[in-house]
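R.M. (postdoc): so does anyone remember the format we settled on? I'll just put the structure tokens first.
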């Protein structure tokens, strides 16, 4: 199977304002496991220097494990048309892991996966002047997340004709509910109270 793209058509992550700029979620993971010994892996990146590694493995006939690690380390202008001296640096490292149940439905034409897991990481965002080396604003903390995810996917491959050849793909829907906590939060070096939020994602992902 040729994997063409992974698109998010509908996604919502209503985090608190104080931590929305400190948490950068990894790409959605839909392993599509169907039998013991099957595995799935992916590497993702974007122009914002955000990179993610993902993998999943079926340890039993209906039991699977999955994990991901995402990294973002950037130092760029605060705004596209802004002064080159006004910089913003981001350091974000986050890992998550889950275990779940999978099975095939409707005469092996559909796959149902249910996963639960947790994640943890460190994050820091700093705005500073590159010429004076004076920090204008800084925010940092430790992230902790709990999540439940349900994937419902078609294993039947569709195809379309493009550039002189047929491209095969399949598609699925992933629903995720998450509970996020930001601990040891420091704003400009001053310790703040922990922040928490709940979120839900609805994803339609070609795989």
């Amino acid at each position: 199977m040729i994997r063409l793209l992974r698109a998010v058509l509908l996604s919502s992550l209503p985090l608190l304002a104080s931590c929305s700029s400190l948490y950068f979620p990894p790409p959605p993971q839909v392993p599509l496991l169907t039998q013991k010994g099957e595995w799935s892996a992916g590497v993702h990146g974007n122009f914002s220097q955000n990179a993610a590694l993902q993998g999943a493995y079926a340890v039993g006939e209906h039991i699977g494990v999955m994990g991901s690690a995402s990294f973002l380390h950037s130092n760029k202008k605060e705004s596209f048309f802004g002064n080159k001296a006004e910089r913003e640096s981001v350091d974000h490292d986050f890992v998550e892991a889950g275990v779940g149940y999978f099975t095939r439905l409707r005469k092996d034409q559909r796959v149902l996966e249910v996963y639960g897991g947790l994640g943890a990481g460190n994050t820091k965002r700093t705005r500073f002047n590159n010429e004076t080396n004076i920090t204008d604003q800084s925010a940092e903390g430790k992230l902790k997340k709990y999540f439940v995810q349900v994937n419902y996917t078609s294993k039947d491959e569709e195809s379309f004709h493009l550039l002189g050849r047929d491209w095969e793909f399949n598609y699925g829907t992933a629903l995720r509910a998450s509970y996020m906590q930001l601990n040891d939060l420091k704003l400009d070096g001053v310790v703040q109270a922990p922040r928490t939020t709940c979120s839900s994602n609805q994803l339609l992902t070609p795989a």
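R.M.: ...and that's the designed sequence above, right after the tokens. Also worth knowing: The chain is about 0% helix and 65% strand. The helical segments are 17-20.
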